[in-house]
Amino acid sequence: MGVPIRRAGQGDREAAVGLLHKAFARDAVSRWVFPDPDQLERKHGALMAAFLDMALTEGYVDLAEDGSAVALWTSIPAGDHGDGDPVGFRASIDPDNERIEQIARLTGAAHPKDRAHEYLMLIGVDPDLQGQGLGGGLIANVLARCDREGRHAYLEASSLRSRALYERLGFTFMGHTIDLPDGPPMYPMWREPRS
Predict the structure, then answer these.
(1) What is the dihedral sign for C-alpha 167, 2, 115, 124?
(2) What's 35's DSSP letter?
(3) Which of 92, 141, 182, 186 could form a disulfide with 178 if both were Cys (CB 3.0 to 4.6 A apart)?
(4) Is 30 within 8 Å of 40 (Cβ atoms)?
(5) 178 with 107: CB under 8 angstroms?
(6) What angle do CA 108, 113, 114 make, to 5 degrees?
(7) Which alpha helices (H) appear in 68-173, and where do they start and end?
(8) Alpha carbon distance 6, 11 (integer Å)
(9) Residues with Cβ < 8 Å from 42, sequence gap 6 or more?
(10) What's the domain count of the chain?
(11) Span 86-90, mean pLDDT?
(12) Is 187 exposed, middle or buried (0-12, 13-18, 19+ CB in 10 A)?
């Protein structure tokens, strides 16, 4: 399925954050980060905004032209690129929520450091349109570029359903989960470039 895509900018911020909030509000990982429904409603958008701002600053954001899907990417160099600033990340979103810091530390520790790659931080599809190929279509052009350039790709799937989607796109489960304390597993996935 061809998905008309454009590169998003600051002018798309509000719509993209709204879409990410809507797409992930029922996700098991988001519900682990914000177990209280009121807290989820009040703070989840700030978490999505922090991810979006990181992609706009350090990477790029692809947006379906009709606003139905958004993908946040960063280009990661080979070598020890650190684990970011989990404490500062938590402080900027919800200082009283230690789970924001925990998930940042756990995903940072699991992130491959030996090879340069494109990192799919998040991809969100309007829940009313999920299952129609928009997610796969949205990231297809980045994966095609990875194939042309011999570049690897990495992500963490937040469910078995999304893991199956990424496997169809050539990603492979890396054999170990990221285990959130008393929460759902996440599935680190790696994609070798196709020739």
Answers:
(1) negative
(2) -
(3) 186
(4) yes
(5) yes
(6) 165
(7) 86-93, 98-110, 134-149, 160-168
(8) 13
(9) none
(10) 1
(11) 87
(12) buried
Helical spans, DSSP H, in the chain: 13-24, 28-33, 37-58, 86-93, 98-110, 134-149, 160-168
What are the pLDDT digits (tens) for 51-85? 999 999 999 999 999 999 999 999 999 986 666 78
Q: Can you give the residue range of the structural domain that contains 171?
A: 5-191
Cα–Cα nearest to 103, from 186, 172, 173, 20: 186
Helix (H) or strand (E) holding 71: strand 69-76
For the chain, the maximum distance between any two Cα atoms, rounded to a whole number of angstroms, is 48
CATH number at residue 40: 3.40.630.30
Q: Which residues of 93-128 are buried (b: 16+ CB within 10 A; e: fewer)?
A: bbeebebbbbbbbbbbebbeeeeebbbbbbbbbbee
| The two three-digit tokens of residue 160, written as one number | 């078995």
Query: Which residues contact residue 96 at a Cβ distance below 8 angstroms, ignoring those fewer than 6 apart?
Result: none
More confident residue, 173 or 86: 173
